[in-house]
Amino acid sequence: MDEQRAQVTWEQRLPRFLHPPALLDTPGSSADRVVTPRLALFFLAAAAVLVPWTTWLFLTLPAREQAERWNVAWGGFDALLVLVFAAAAVRILRLSVRSAAVNAVAAALLVVDAWFDVMLAPAAELPVALLMAVLVELPMAFLCARTSLRVLSLMEQARPYLVAAGFTVRQGRLVPPEGWVPEGRVPQDRVPEGRVPKDRVPEGRVPGRSADGPDGERL
Fold it and tell me: Which helix H or strand E contains 126, and what residues bound it?
């Protein structure tokens, strides 16, 4: 009994709702994890440090301040939005699962844009800033967040099927079960000598993936 307790890791002692899903819960060293659970400690520490710092800012910063490089700050921010929107368009057209990450970044930037537009607007420009936030920036942020969540939801739905098929994760890569053969290919030991099966996929091609697309790009 004592030996079994000694083998239980600190992650397994956490509440059940914090345990990783089956496909990502790979035993072994931290190198087997897609993301090491100990990284959560870093973010918890960062949140704890930010609480007193944020309180101090609320209490000590002046209500008015003259800013330097105001044009560069806002122009650079909008230039970043242009790059993120273009990247989101490319990922969506390529049916890439990475569109989830790009759209999540776009949603966060749009919320930040709306927040500072409203908070920093002079009194005369506040109605326009509010209208822009309510009618443009926040609806676009909602659209980006919804797109990201739809892609992530698809990945969540695929997980139980991968677990049932015997797939595991090792060092950040999806590992098929032993003897697994992609659909459309026939194992070499089942092909009669001197005969090429009709359903064999051309060399270098994987079913459901374009010939020139990078690995893991298409849904």
Answer: helix 126-132
